Amino acid sequence: LMRPPQGCRGRGVVVGTVTLCLAAGWALQTPGGVSLLVPQPNINATVAQNILLSVEYSCRGVATIEWKHVSSWGTTSIAEWRSGNYVNISTVYKDRVTAFENGSIQLRNVGMRDAGYYFVTVTEEHGTNAYGTIVVNVYEIIYEDLHFVAVLFAFLAAVSAILICFMWLCNKSLHLFQKKTTHKLTASTTEEIELETIEC
């Protein structure tokens, strides 16, 4: 067997080491992707409440965040922005949405039409994507039932007050009637006694 010359083996080790170092450097410079965390994938809210659609992302480069709402009424773009840049909020949500640097958005004064699926896409500048979904359920407060209870309570309070006043007046009248009757009985008894005395 022939052994390679000592110099060739040394050169191969050096070339292999340089190649390994270049590959490691290239791997470190290549984006490691983007990760996205959705801590609360289901949100229950009532009408007129404010809700936070919370996410947390991380990536090596500059990311673009985009939010969309999908419901039975269709798909609506909510907001889109690049980290550190101006936030572009659609006119439908202009006065109701606040965007945060971590990718979250706050939706104010929700209504029944805000129920549905909220999709967030985080795209790194090199093209890597991460997706997240939050389901929002919106419930109505039954104001009619509360109104009925309040009206019924007010009606019962008014009837009770009228009955109390009526009982007080009856009691007062009865008391006055008893006083007059007692006074008349006393007067007639006195008259009878006087008549008996005169007859005698």
Features:
single chain, 200 residues, alpha+beta, Immunoglobulin-like, 2 domains, 6-stranded mixed sheet, 11 strands, 40% helix
What do these coordinates show?
It is a single chain. The chain is of the alpha+beta class. The protein has two domains: 32-140, Immunoglobulin-like (Sandwich); 142-187. The protein has helices at residues 6-29, 143-199, and strands at residues 34-37, 42-46, 51-53, 56-59, 63-71, 74-82, 88-89, 97-99, 105-107, 116-124, 129-139. Mean pLDDT is 80; it is low at 10-31. Residues 40-139 form the Immunoglobulin domain.
Tell me about the largest β-sheet: 6 strands, mixed
Q: Quote the average pLDDT.
A: 80
CATH fold label of the largest domain: Immunoglobulin-like
CATH superfamily of the largest domain: Immunoglobulins
What general form does the structure show? rod-shaped
SSE blueprint:
Blueprint (H helix, E strand, L loop, with lengths): L5 H24 L4 E4 L4 E5 L4 E3 L2 E4 L3 E9 L2 E9 L5 E2 L7 E3 L5 E3 L8 E9 L4 E11 L3 H57 L1
Parallel strand pairs: 2-11
Antiparallel strand pairs: 1-4, 3-9, 5-6, 5-10, 6-7, 8-9, 10-11
Short description:
The chain is of the alpha+beta class and 200 residues long.
